[in-house]
From TrEMBL:
Domain of life: Bacteria
Name of one Pfam family that matches: HD
Keyword Hydrolase: yes
Protein's name in the database: Predicted hydrolase, HD superfamily
Keyword flag Hydrolase: yes
Matches recorded under PANTHER family: METAL DEPENDENT PHOSPHOHYDROLASE, METAL-DEPENDENT PHOSPHOHYDROLASE
One Gene Ontology molecular-function label: hydrolase activity
Organism: Pontibacter lucknowensis
HD/PDEase domain: residues covered: 15-119
Length: 187
């Protein structure tokens, strides 16, 4: 599967700008980690891009719709990683790809939320500020802090270093991402 094919699948099921941006940010972070670790960058990027592809169109069936589509296309490794990207689904983490996706999903969304409440967005954002916001349960309340912790642990990364890495990746794509300020009720 190519990234263009993956984007087409995503855009068939997802119209929400925030979900499309989340897919793109996780795609970028997964690709960067694959580069860093010498893994398959296309596979990792596609896993990041498609991990929530069916979330808007099929919320009650998420992630089964996208997982089944990927399996039909012979993309078992990506399908398995997506099927395992939430610890409460009790799917085993068999590969580094599986662990990377769980480690990158929630925290990337949280970092974007942190950037969106800052006038300078990603510029100057650091792990210390993000870690402080993680302790504020009312901020980006939908982000599961336990998933963030478990993800980093499974992936074998220090959370602060992980956050700094993700911020660095997102900063490289800041103009493309065009992070808009969050509304007060979203923060």
């Amino acid at each position: 599967m190519t990234r263009d094919e993956a984007r087409a699948i995503l855009e068939q099921m997802t119209t929400s700008e925030s979900l499309l941006r989340h897919a793109r940010t996780v795609e970028l972070v997964m690709e960067a980690y694959a580069n860093k670790l010498g893994e398959n960058t296309e596979e990792w990027a596609i896993a990041g891009l498609l991990h929530d592809a069916d979330y808007q169109a099929y919320p009650e069936q998420h992630p089964n719709v996208i997982v089944n589509q990927l399996r039909e296309k012979g993309e078992e490794r990506i399908a398995h990683a997506i099927s395992a990207h939430y610890t409460h689904w009790d799917v085993p983490y068999e590969t580094t790809l599986d662990k990377a996706l769980i480690a990158c999903d929630e925290i990337t969304g949280f970092i974007v939320a942190c950037a969106q409440v800052r006038p300078q967005r990603l510029e100057g954002l650091g792990a210390k500020s993000v870690m402080k916001k993680l302790k504020t349960s009312g901020f980006a309340a939908s982000v599961d802090r336990e998933e963030v912790r478990i993800g980093a642990e499974l992936f074998g990364v220090d959370l602060k270093e992980h956050i700094d890495f993700i911020i660095g990746v997102l900063q490289q794509h800041q103009s493309e991402l065009q992070l808009e300020p969050l509304e007060q009720d979203e923060a």
